[in-house]
Automatic annotation (TrEMBL), chains A, B:
Listed PANTHER family: TRYPTOPHAN SYNTHASE, TRYPTOPHAN SYNTHASE-RELATED
Record-listed E.C. numbers: 4.2.1.20
Summary of subunit composition and partner proteins: Tetramer of two alpha and two beta chains.
Originating species: Hydrogeniiclostridium mannosilyticum
Catalyzed chemical reaction(s): (1S,2R)-1-C-(indol-3-yl)glycerol 3-phosphate + L-serine = D-glyceraldehyde 3-phosphate + L-tryptophan + H2O
Keyword Signal: no
Any one Pfam family match given in the protein's UniProt record, by short name: PALP
Keyword set, alphabetical order: Amino-acid biosynthesis, Aromatic amino acid biosynthesis, Lyase, Pyridoxal phosphate, Tryptophan biosynthesis
Enzyme class at the top of the EC tree: lyase
Cofactors: pyridoxal 5'-phosphate
Every Tryptophan synthase beta chain-like PALP domain range: 79-418
Single GO term (MF): tryptophan synthase activity
GO terms for cellular component: cytoplasm
Organism taxonomic ancestry: Bacteria, Bacillati, Bacillota, Clostridia, Eubacteriales
Record's protein name: tryptophan synthase
Length: 460, 460
């Protein structure tokens, strides 16, 4: 058998031409979104004021298994995709493990993360509908960067509401978005009603993702020819991100491999849901039985310590309600450098799969242990991972070390979602031993669970 | 004919197994290095106190055409190489040019630039010789980052003397190097004699590359089992960087293409020399006649306004003398964001090829026009280029626009040496219209030419 290369790049011909909709193969569907005014299941058309129509349809379509990727989207994908499948030979050797460690690397584009996969699709559909502008929020900045690039390409205006804390701490993230032409606003801002109200109540707040979402939605719904877009959580986003898993599966098949364990970091679930999609299909259809692990920060443990309940997606409580693992929309995320994993909820699809035990395990990791793994990986494999991605690395290393004990030659696949170029302040803190681990107390969580909505007859 | 893909990745099997030494095919050789004490041509052994032996031999070997790349070096190359060859379809379309624009992209590794190609080789040979530590200097930080990664991988200690101005302005560059275990020292420092002397004379200096080189060499020659390594200018570096051109040529051949114009940015000449190597071989051997253009900043115009003369490689005047295009080792580089192109001299090989007109043209570009090109490219091709690389983009765009006027369907290849993630302060300045263009006056240059050494009988 030919030696497996350090890195496999599929050819342009092998780029998937369709996204895969995992819901089509789920025996039980995630519970429907609810209209926040009526608590009734939301109709597709009711989403049109917020999302552009094609995306609203993708959001609510649980039966179409495959969606054609438009040619215009493929044209951008082809600049940076198929993304590489790496084999972490050096890491394996350093660990002394019989396990084989593969990673699907999504940091090979200027946005620095997998977020571009959905940003391009969402910007395209907006352009198709004749819209002229979009709004969104960003925390760590990966999504805002990706969407700025996509909007620049399609000639759309973009307002990014960036959590004020990040806005101040990450001026270079802001600069990248501005380079691609985005208007970056520190949230809460005085440009929206909800922002002004929050500022009036708490002038010194550094903002939150939930607050930025509320502002972005207000801006979208009060601006002509404008819609709101979101980089995670939603079904449509997982659909677009399925390209990660589809490519990974094709690449592994080409190598004669199939993963025993698939590991993804989990914030809103976009990377995890995309990476596992075709492998989960195999499991749902009884063809294979890979073991799936979601890894989240111990500081924001929605899967491991949250409730499976209906909740708002934002703190302003203007979004539709989704049934998901959640800490409550009032959850105050603790300081944590994996800003992309600091959301109170979790994708309804991922939540349902976890609830029904198709997603086998959720695991939380403390920040310093995550950075231990990040630095170890960087030194051995020359890729400096984003803190988000390093959660998956932590878990992959732990699983590989278990194999060392048991002697099992398991095949591990994890998602390396992005690079850490804009997270050097966090690395510096780690190197200077000033990084802390924060785990919310049961009391903290109870207080935020108390913010869960009461829904007569459904959730009392 | 099959459509040419947006991006071609050669397979691991196609990774070159040998570096190509351009000197072997040059009819006239670059003038030899001179011993700074005797002004006599330096013998290989005289370089051993500074460079490790294998590298000293590569430095002075003008007859061996191909050097085997050691397996241990190939093992790291395989993590990030072959690097992609891109076709800038979107840029072509936006320009409305009949030209075909290709770029060889070297930003696909954590170091963010082509510098890793030589860093890995130099660290390997040092390890092979049983050395325990290395020293180097870095300006913009790309070389320091690359070498930090390589030393981390091979278990070597590394002291990086970072120009103090960069050290203060680019804390995140410093943090990346520290993450990979390097000891980063602001230069001038109090850790060396030459540093202390400079600080005593001028306590507020923000340093220079030439000064950092002097400190790194002093440190290397006064530390047991330690040598100095350099990221550009030297023949050995161009040898290692030939992998860029070798891959580019193989990829273009696979597409049935050959460049009419090859464009590289030029600081010390490492990228330019590496990119053009196999195409220049074709020209030297009369097989093909591509047109070569070197692009440098108008603020540091060694090829376009410098003298072809013997000069020191550092301001401390401790290095061997090289005959090259130079502005004089006393040249004070002006503020310019392309820190990697801010060196007073130019690779002796590149200099000789330019002097003999095999390298057809050198061109200088002003900073704001370079950033115009950088932002245009980023918006269309989703890659945010390093300011250094953007010099080549500027030229590629200008050449493509000429083709638009003449109707010629020329094939253009340029080197996209790296990404601009750590240069966002520069992009911000550009976006805020506070970026200035600086061009040294003839008087400024005359003053620095006066620092050229007098060499009896050779250069009076």
């Amino acid at each position: 058998m030919a030696k497996i290369p350090h890195r496999l790049n599929l050819t342009e011909d092998q780029l998937p031409k369709q996204w895969y909709n995992l819901r089509a193969d789920m025996k039980e569907q995630p519970d429907p979104l609810l209209n926040p005014a009526t608590f009734q299941p939301i109709r597709t058309e009711e989403l049109y004021p917020i999302f552009c129509e094609e995306l609203a349809q993708q959001e609510t379509d649980s039966s179409t298994a495959y969606f054609d990727i438009p040619d215009e989207v493929l044209d951008i994908y082809k600049i940076y995709r198929p993304s590489p499948l790496g084999r972490a030979y050096n890491l394996e050797k350093a660990l002394g493990t019989p396990a084989k460690i593969y990673y699907k690397f999504e940091g090979n584009n200027t946005s620095g993360s997998h977020k571009l996969n959905s940003a391009v699709a969402q910007a395209y559909y907006a352009k198709q509908q004749g819209l002229t502008s979009l709004t969104t929020e960003t925390g760590a900045g990966q999504w805002g960067t990706a969407l700025s690039e996509a909007c620049s390409y399609f000639g759309l205006n973009l307002d990014v509401f960036m959590v004020k804390g990040s806005f101040m701490q990450k001026p270079y993230r802001k600069a990248v978005m501005q380079t691609f032409g985005a208007n970056v606003v520190a949230s809460p801002s005085d440009t929206t009603k909800v922002g002004r109200a929050i500022l009036a109540a708490n002038p010194d707040t550094t903002g939150s993702l939930g607050c930025a979402i509320s502002e972005a939605i207000e801006k979208a719904t009060t601006t002509p020819n404008c819609r709101y877009v979101l980089g995670s959580v939603l079904n449509q986003v997982l659909l677009h991100q399925s390209i990660i898993g589809l490519e990974a599966k094709t690449a592994m098949e080409q190598l004669g491999e199939y993963p025993d364990i698939v590991i993804g970091c989990a914030g809103g679930g976009s990377n995890l849901g995309g990476l596992i999609a075709p492998f989960m299909q195999d499991k749902l259809l009884g063809r294979k039985n890979p073991y799936f692990i979601a890894v989240e920060p111990a500081s924001c443990p929605s899967l491991t310590r949250g409730r499976y309940a209906y909740d708002f997606c934002d703190t302003g409580k203007v979004t539709p309600l989704a049934r998901m693992y959640t800490l409550g929309s009032g959850f105050i995320p603790s300081p944590n450098h994996a800003g992309g994993l600091r959301y109170h909820g979790m994708s309804p699809i991922v939540s349902k799969l976890y609830h029904d035990r198709y997603l086998d395990e959720a695991r939380s990791a403390e920040q310093t242990k995550v950075f231990d793994a990040a630095v170890q990986f960087a030194k051995l494999e020359t890729i400096l991972p984003a803190p988000e991605s390093a959660h998956a690395i932590r878990c992959a290393i732990d699983e590989a070390l278990k194999c060392k004990e048991t002697g099992e030659e398991k095949t591990i696949l994890f998602g390396l979602t992005g690079t850490g170029y804009f997270d050097m302040a966090a690395y510096t803190q780690y190197l200077e031993h000033s990084m802390t681990d924060y785990v919310p107390s049961d009391g903290d969580l109870q207080a935020s669970f108390d913010t869960l909505p009461k829904i007569p007859g459904i959730q009392d």
